[in-house]
């Protein structure tokens, strides 16, 4: 039987899932690749993989997508790894440099700029050194492990999951396990069980992870990242997709 191909984001927030896949032996039943969020999404769009832990904005480019897990990468309030770092207060931002690794977070920033903060700075794509601008009215979006330990380096820091909750009253879902074709129920049940094993054994995972002095990984993976795919997160997902569509109008 042909193995189901799965792509997962290679960031630290995915490590509990990978731990579960590896320590239940489920990884031997699949073809697993670890990728940047944008590459993970593109593989699913191009049918290079069957399931991807993809940024939710990418579902807009997949005709018949389905959620295939009870788990996701989400947050209820601050997530502590998806930010706008700024040299000025948000309403003074004139230029926003986008993160080349992210679709959903760039779109989340755009949604908040338009609908919550009601400002329209110029968006800069593919800035050569996008996270190092010293221009007074420039800010940048950055996500994932590259943000660890950076909060204290900038005077103005906006956690986008926290700002989304202020705006909507809802949690946020950054990435979900999405399929581009029907997946057998038996597979999904075993897949879910493997993911749950990883979440239930985060204590063992921490023994393998190198700890940092400038960032609390335990708090991040136990508290800040909220892995349960709740009805509230699903509601937020579809609300977010509607907001993205309005950006394109």
Helix content: 25-40%
> Would you tell me the overall average pLDDT?
94
Q: Shape, please?
A: globular
The stretches of 5 or more residues where confidence is low (pLDDT under 50) are: none
List the total number of helices. 8
Question: Biggest sheet: strands, sense, closure?
Answer: 6 strands, mixed
Structural class: alpha/beta
Radius of gyration, in angstroms, nearest whole number: 18 Å
What is the terminal-to-terminal distance?
45 Å
The side-by-side strand order for the widest beta sheet comes to: 2-1-3-10-4-11
Annotation, overall tally of beta strands: 11
Strand content: 15-25%
Series of H and E elements = EHEHEEEEHEEEHEHHHEH
Description of the molecule:
By secondary structure, this protein is α/β, with parallel strands linked by helices. It is built from eight helices and eleven strands. The strands form two sheets. It has a six-stranded mixed β-sheet. Strands 7-6-8-5-9 form a five-stranded mixed β-sheet. Helix 3 crosses helix 4 (160-168). It is globular, with a radius of gyration of 18 Å.
Keywords:
249 residues; alpha/beta; six-stranded mixed β-sheet; five-stranded mixed β-sheet; 8 helices; 11 strands; 36% helix; globular
SSE layout and pairing:
Layout: E1 4-9, H1 15-23, E2 30-35, H2 37-45, E3 51-55, E4 66-75, E5 82-86, E6 95-97, H3 104-116, E7 122-124, E8 138-143, E9 156-159, H4 160-168, E10 172-179, H5 185-200, H6 202-208, H7 217-224, E11 226-228, H8 231-248
Parallel strand pairs: 1-2, 1-3, 6-7, 6-8
Antiparallel strand pairs: 3-10, 4-10, 4-11, 5-8, 5-9
Helix pairs in contact: 1-5, 3-4, 3-8
